[in-house]
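#struct-help
A.M.: can someone run this one for me? Single chain, 243 residues.
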Amino acid sequence: MKNKILVVDDEESIVTLLQYNLEQAGFEVITAMDGEKGKKLAETESPDIIVLDLKLPLLNGMDVLKQLRQKKIMTPILMLTAKDDELDKILGFELGADDYMIKPFSLRELLARVKALLRRTQIQTVAANDNGKDETKIIIGKLKIYPEKFEAYFQENLLELTVKEFEFLLYMAQNKNRILTREQLLNAVWNYDFSGVPRIVDVHISRLREKIKEETKKPIYIKTLRGIGYKLEEPKDNDKISD
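D.P.: on it. Structure tokens below:
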């Protein structure tokens, strides 16, 4: 069965171009040219990936993204923006986007990024259906991570994570107690030439901390090394963790 891609953009030429090339690459493509229709299709058609322009009529792309994440729809979202604006990138990631590209963009690169996001979701689907397989897991305090299933739990509760949030968490867990710079985290999670900004790492760390609920205001699991980067570590005996 073909993977389904939802393309939401108000420029007819871009929609036509993306639809043709994605279909040539073997995908089923559905399209919308305003945010209201795009949001409705995301909710009703269960696409595997959403390619979402930020500047849309009726409902802008940021609002579409925000409302989908609020409804716990964690479909990978690739943002498109005409502006090389750091604030747009940061806000998009704060709302739960997985990746972004700036117009004009390379079709080859867009296809590569779509396929990269799909590989993660396909691994997750296969693993979820393979109930007979022994599961590898990483346990750090109250945090449990299942790499093959693309799932993470905190205090036995399943965490609602985007693809990139999970990859950030997994990479840090696999490198437990190691200090990781922002550049290392960017290169590890975006395994292609990513012209991002270090602040995007801070955004993902902040979102992860919000999802790993703690009783104390002081971060317990993900520690900041000011001016250097971050590290994930086992909670210490004097750290207070809720049961």
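A.M.: thanks! The domain at 4-127 is CATH 3.40.50.2300 (Rossmann fold).
D.P.: also worth noting: The mean pLDDT is 84.
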